[in-house]
Amino acid sequence: MKGIILSEFVEFIEQELGEDTAQKIIDDSGVKSDGAYSRVGLYDYQELIQLLTQAVAETETEATVLLGRFSDHLFMVFKRDYSLFFDNVGSAAEMLKQIDDHIHVEVKKLYPDAELPSFSYTQQGAILTLSYTSPRPLALVAHSLVGACLKFFGNNEELLTSDIGQDHKSAHFTIRTGDGE
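^ that's the sequence the OP posted. Answer follows.
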C-alpha cells in the first residue's frame, strides 16, 4: 500500500484526536513502521487495519464512522494534491467512472510499483454500478471513499446499495446519478 494512505491516516487521527492520543494509537497498534510513513513508500496494508482497529478501540467509535470521516479527509487531500484529476469533473459519477482509465493510469506512471485496486462500471440510465476488486481486503475503505466522493460533489447523487464481498476484496456499489449521465 502506498504511504500516502497511511501518512494521511496518521495526520487524520492527530487532527481529530490530538497528537498524544494519536501516538498512543500508533504505539498500541504495534505497527512495524512505528507510524513513520513516507507518502511514496510501500507498506503492508495490515498497518492501516492495525491503526484503524486501535483507533476504534481507543475512541469507542464504529470503524465505519471513523473510515467515513477519514475518507472525507483523504478526499480533500486528493483534491488539494491532485487537482488535475478534478478538472472538468462536475459529478461523483464522472469522477468514479474515470478511476481506472485515467486516475490509475497516471498513478502507475508516477508509481510503477503501486498495486492498485481495479474499478469498472456500467451505466444504465440514471443508475451507475461500480465494481471494485483488490488483492487486499479494503472494500470498506473503497465504500467510504465512494461516500466521500458523493458528499464532495453533492449533486443529489445517492448510494443506493453496496454489496461488500465476504473476503472484503470486492464490492459492488449502485449509485443513482439523477440525470442518466
